[in-house]
């Protein structure tokens, strides 16, 4: 007789299933779990190469110790701190030391699309972060693009929405989160619900409204900063 064990996720948040725990242990990660969070400690190994056409990037045998904190309430993304302190303090880090892996909407979309898989989060965001850093240290640049630190949130929404004007990006978010019966900010004369709503919803539906509201507030604050003038 074959017994199939079904592991159901806990109602109060994220659970790293048996397969992921096994994979993480095989990679040398230690897992500490409490009622509110899961903490992973271990080493991220970089052994990659990339053919950019005009240059071939090779990074071998680089290791970075990390601490990854996962909030079981799903209100925040996994927080990553590089505990080995090999990465320069001015390279894409927040004030408290956690790594800036990308724009919030980019990270949330990838995290949710992978069904909140922490192993995929490591592969998709954490390893590329260290790979880019190693390329900069060894080659002076990196082969793959990244968003600016500070203004990356605007750049991410430009790419996702296909809109360059900062005021229109803010208007789209305001309409998407608010009254959908107002006239669409695109100028078509139609209600937002009848015009761009379905198109925008396809691009933003995987991200919680709390994240979108926070990003909208950040975008509004960026409007007053001097470096923003170059995009006007």
Give a description of the structure:
This protein has two domains: 18-139; 152-231, no CATH class. It contains seven helices and four strands, in the order H-E-E-E-E-H-H-H-H-H-H. By secondary structure, the chain is an alpha+beta fold. It has helices spanning 18-26, 104-113, 118-139, 152-161, 166-177, 197-204, 209-222, and strands at 30-33, 37-51, 56-71, 79-82. Strand 1 (30-33) and strand 2 form a beta hairpin. A four-stranded antiparallel β-sheet has the order 1-2-3-4. The radius of gyration is 20 Å and the shape is globular. Helix 5 (166-177) runs antiparallel to helix 7. The chain starts with 17 loop residues before the first helix and ends in a 10-residue tail after the last helix.
What is the succession of H and E elements? HEEEEHHHHHH
Write down the oligomeric state: single chain
> Biggest sheet: strands, sense, closure?
4 strands, antiparallel
How much is the average pLDDT? 82
DSSP, total strands: 4
Low-confidence stretches: 1-14, 225-232
Strand residue percentage: 15-25%
Q: Tell me roughly what share of residues is in helical segments.
A: 25-40%
Report Rg.
20 Å
Number of helices: 7
Give the tally of structural domains.
2
Structural class: alpha+beta
Q: Given the C-alpha coordinates, what overall shape results?
A: globular
Strand order of the largest sheet: 1-2-3-4
The span between the termini is: 69 Å
């Amino acid at each position: 007789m074959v017994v199939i064990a079904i592991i159901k996720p806990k109602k109060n948040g994220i659970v790293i299933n048996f397969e992921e725990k096994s994979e993480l242990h095989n990679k040398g990660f230690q897992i500490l779990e409490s009622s509110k969070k899961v903490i992973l400690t271990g080493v991220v190994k970089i052994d990659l190469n990339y053919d950019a056409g005009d240059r071939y990037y090779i990074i071998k045998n680089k290791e970075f110790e990390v601490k990854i904190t996962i909030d079981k309430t799903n209100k925040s993304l996994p927080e990553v701190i590089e505990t080995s302190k090999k990465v320069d303090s001015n390279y894409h880090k927040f004030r408290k030391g956690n790594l800036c892996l990308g724009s919030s909407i980019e990270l949330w979309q990838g995290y949710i699309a992978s069904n909140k898989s922490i192993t995929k989060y490591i592969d998709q965001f954490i390893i590329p972060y260290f790979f880019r850093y190693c390329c900069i240290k060894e080659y002076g640049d990196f082969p793959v693009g990244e968003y600016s630190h500070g203004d990356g949130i605007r750049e991410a929404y430009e790419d996702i929405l296909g809109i360059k004007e900062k005021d229109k990006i803010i208007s789209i978010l305001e309409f998407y989160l608010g009254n959908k019966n107002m006239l669409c900010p695109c100028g078509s004369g139609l209600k937002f619900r009848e015009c761009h709503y379905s198109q925008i919803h396809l691009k933003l539906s995987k991200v919680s409204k709390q994240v979108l509201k926070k990003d909208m507030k950040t975008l509004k604050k960026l409007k007053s900063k001097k470096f923003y003038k170059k995009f006007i």
